[in-house]
Fold this sequence. Notes:
Chain B: Belongs to the GcvH family. By secondary structure, chain A is of the alpha/beta class.
Amino acid sequence: MPFIANTDRDREEMLRDIGVSSFEELLPDIPATCRLDRELDLPAAIGEMEVADLLSSLAESNQHAPGYTSFLGGGAYDHYIPAALRTIVSRSEFYTAYTPYQAEVSQGTLQAIYEYQSMICRLYGMDVANASLYDGATALGEAVALALNVTGCSRVMVAGRIHPNTTEVLKTFVEPGGKASLEQNSLKDGLCDFEALEASMSDSVAAVIVQQPNFYGSLEDVQRIGEIAHRHNALFIVSADPVSLAVLEAPGVYGADIAVGEGQPLGSALNFGGPYLGIFAVSEKYVRKLPGRLVGLTKDRDGEDGFILTLQTREQHIRREKATSNICTNQALNALQAVVYLSLVGKTGLRQVAELSMQKAHYLAGKINELPGYSVRGDAPFFREFVVDTPVDASVVVQRMLEHGFFAGCDLGLFGETGLLCAVTEKRTKAEMDRFVECLGSLS
Amino acid sequence: MNIPEHLRYTKDHEWISVQEDGTTALVGITDFAQSELGDIVFVETKPAGTSLDEHDAFGTVEAVKTVADLFAPVSCEILEVNEALDAAEIVNSDPYGDGWMVKVALKEPSQVDGLLNASAYRELVGE
């Protein structure tokens, strides 16, 4: 985008054009008591070179993933991003944060979104995926809103442990208005307690939510949770990690009515926590309640394939206050990154990413388990992440390992729990993991 | 514009057809309404058993680029929803026949007399 200057002369010309003599003349409707009546209290302007120096010195005080060996996960994963991805998504034809206005003019963008939707449907085993939402947590929030809307019920059950931050986001969707409640089912050894879930179900449950793998990285018996949900006519909502789906069963196969996920692992950088990508897919039955934008394939008047925004009457600009969601855009750039990532790595490549992450995570877990004072919690199967009980507080481990050049993992103390949540992606080498274990050993 | 003489109409462009029993009626949208909306792609109504007061919204009708509410012409209870509306285009092709939307039980049959007759409705739509 070009730099657009706004000089004194430009402003004078604009004011003259609209027939006023000063900017002040445009503001009589704002009461004097609401006016600031002084300049903003800002430091004096500095030159571009000084700004660049200031910003780089601020940036250098961050500890960022490329300078460390990272075992951080907890919802954001340090997978490798192929170099071609950045080149492709940076093309000016593609580079946009949102679905464009007059969307049909941008056939390339719509095609990319259409391909993204198709790939998400394949990956999650669902009928229809939207053009994406803001992130995994808000996608789950929209899923809950959809379930409350179609069932008319008021209770939302969380089976198993979902990310605590996601729970906080869900509360903002469920609790205002006081008509619905979010309930955490009790856990048994870190996993969903089926007897407790069964006992707490009733006909007023709108949805049962499960995260796969769960917050601790373990795999839940999702089939069984889905059966319990459906036996009580509740919708079954699955939040699944997209990379894990290269080796695990797709949510659609085990009966998910709505499947969501955090799409960051598909080609989005860690980005200090965002922007990320909200994956959202439904079975066809709920297509008219689907939030967000949806791109469809059609024929133009010459009989050629063309892409359009479809089923728009679901959306707020048409349905107004009766719309079931106020999401009117998507994470176009992150969705583009996901579709380019999936295209570059392909079906085999994604499977390799998943298998390598899983094998390396299991190698590291085994090595840590051999260390005196350390133990990997529980014996549930896991994908690329697991909880370690540490001989000293996890926050101390994290701090000390920084000195050795490691992000040791996510300190569960941040969420009022104990333990260290370690994630391993395909980027970690055996040498890195061996050195990590050696350094951990030196702490105890 | 087709405005059958034997029906009653509302300002919201619904028609109502009281059945021979005098207590039940069919409700739909008028030929004028369907032509203004354009290609109708979806009709959604509240389920059978829903009790409605006069002017209560009982559903929506979706065209390609717009959506309109459906209002109860009189106080009634929905007895039946037209299953054939899964193919919503029949509202365009046969708005007064196969394109009916709900069958209702009238709470106060006399309310129907207060609705527009064919000539009043013709005047409303400017024919």
